[in-house]
Fold:
Amino acid sequence: MGPGRTVGAFQDFVDGAGLMARGYTFVMVDLRGFGGSTGCLDWVGPGEQADVRAAVEWAAGQPWSTGKVGMYGKSYDAVTGLVGNNLKLDSLKAVVAQEPVWDMYNYLFSNKVPRPNVTGTPNAYNSIATIPAMADDSDRYKANAAYEASHPQCLSDNLTNNNQPDPSSAYWRARDLAAQAAGTRTPLFVTQWVHRAQHQA
Structure:
């Protein structure tokens, strides 16, 4: 689940793990405000959390499903796995999250001082949200992909919604993934990459 049209980003996972040969079904979901979903971006907030819940419950309830769902993602797509973990859904049996952002506040602010991401991230997501539909997309997908054209407030709100420097505000409490993870029991595998500068003598 994530900000739309990242099929290629998961090809190594699908092929490398031999998912189809093992009998798995692979489902990709566009969060609100991206791709074939309508609505405005809600950066890991209650709206996106509801999207994750709906997607997991939908997948678990399909006639082709065993009722057991796993989530996999990289970067922002991995954050949706952390959200899924926090929702404590019986049907969610495992989450693999590669390089997610655990602390959404510290991604944008440092002790109430804005980082460059505070403008860079919303601008990047606005550019993703306005990617035009592809020629072979369904008419419904194309109509949903153009949602921002008739709802320009989505893009402008996205630039200002997270400009809250107070980490104790209701906005950031709703997005405190680490605090919300307390008491979860979903098996969770997280990978992170750490860059270490090498010094030459």
